[in-house]
Specification:
10 strands, alpha+beta, four-stranded mixed beta sheet, 139 residues
Length: 139
């Protein structure tokens, strides 16, 4: 039997980056149960320092995830340091060759930066970075 997995992205602003990726992919940011969070604080299992208010809702400071049915969950987790080197793992966003240029333009208008165009035989891709500098490809 195989194992399930999620992809985890380190971020100094996980909630902002999750919002960006959810919009970029047309996915959903997982809701966090504010009543549960408040109960954990009231019971002493968490503190106010473990939370922030994001988009008007109380959420866990350490991170949030985005989901789409049939796709792996992507978790954005808080880390104190900024990204400093190239990713060893990156996401490939498959849109098809007929939509690639329009999708690259849309993502750039949202704050992505184009960094490279590649081709290998019949395959082409555009490497971009998200607003926090994480590389990903549009294919």
């Amino acid at each position: 039997m195989g194992y399930g997995f999620q992809v985890v992205v380190d971020s100094p602003d996980p909630h902002g980056l999750a919002d960006w990726w959810a919009e970029a992919l047309g996915w959903t940011v997982e809701p966090q149960d504010e009543a549960f969070i408040r109960r954990m604080i009231a019971e002493g299992q968490a503190s106010d320092d473990d939370t922030i208010v994001h988009n008007g809702a109380l959420v866990w400071k350490v991170g949030t995830a985005i989901t789409d049915p049939g796709s792996p969950r992507v978790l954005f987790q808080l880390v104190p340091e900024p990204k400093t080197v190239k990713n060893r793992v990156h996401l490939d966003v498959h849109v098809g060759t007929d939509k690639m240029e329009a999708e690259v333009a849309r993502l750039v208008s949202m704050g992505a930066t184009e960094s490279h165009r590649g081709r290998q035989g019949p395959y082409t891709w555009v490497t971009l970075t998200d607003p926090q500098g994480n590389e990903f490809c549009v294919t």
